[in-house]
């Protein structure tokens, strides 16, 4: 299967400014990175979590519409309705050494190339607008050049202690990915998909 490891967690927002303020209020520190994904028409803000990072992402109001649906369901009416009530943890991403070794349990497009500043990577995106398996299936990434985002961000004492993926489809996800090191934990398969992140901050523990 290859070395499958948590890369980052994804909080989506209706507007980046709203998401940035919402997350800063919870973590107690401001975002330490930001960027645009011209190919997908999105903008983000980043917080370091040690070996991984947290991304707040939103549609770029100044960007050109992409040729395919934006990642993380940002074009999906149900996701947009959910975000109208406030930012939410919607997805996660894993980094792998060999994208071809993963057999996704959902229909996916071939690996696509992406770039931001001096960073380049390949990612496999699920077909369609919705979050694959309700967000249980992760974005799979192979970084190809540049220093990983987590290594660019200052250490503010934030650490992801646990990321639980549970609900419908979780058995398919676990079977397709194989072993994923902690802090990823696969929960029970019953009920709707649930993603829950526990983050330790200098002010205490935050749960998303």
Mean pLDDT rating:
94
> Termini separation (Å)?
29 Å
Helices, by number, come to 4
The percentage helix is 10-25%
Strand order of the largest sheet: 2-3-4-1-5-8-7-6
Question: Structural class, from helix and strand content?
Answer: alpha+beta
Shape: globular
Strand content: 35-45%
List the uncertain runs.
none
Task: Work out the radius of gyration.
Answer: 16 Å
Instruction: Compute the number of strand runs.
Output: 12
Topology as H/E string? EHEEEHEEEEHEHEEE
Report the major sheet.
Answer: 8 strands, mixed
Brief digest:
The chain is α+β, with helices and mostly antiparallel strands and 208 residues long. It is built from 4 helices and 12 strands, in the order E-H-E-E-E-H-E-E-E-E-H-E-H-E-E-E.
What does this structure look like?
This protein is α+β, with helices and mostly antiparallel strands. 15% of the residues lie in helices and 37% in strands. The protein has helices at residues 16-27, 77-83, 149-152, 170-177, and strands at 5-12, 33-37, 42-48, 53-59, 88-95, 112-116, 119-124, 139-145, 159-166, 184-186, 194-201, 204-207. The strands form 2 sheets. Strands 2-3-4-1-5-8-7-6 form an 8-stranded mixed sheet. β11 and β12 form a beta hairpin. The relative contact order is 0.20. The model has no long low-confidence stretch (mean pLDDT 94).
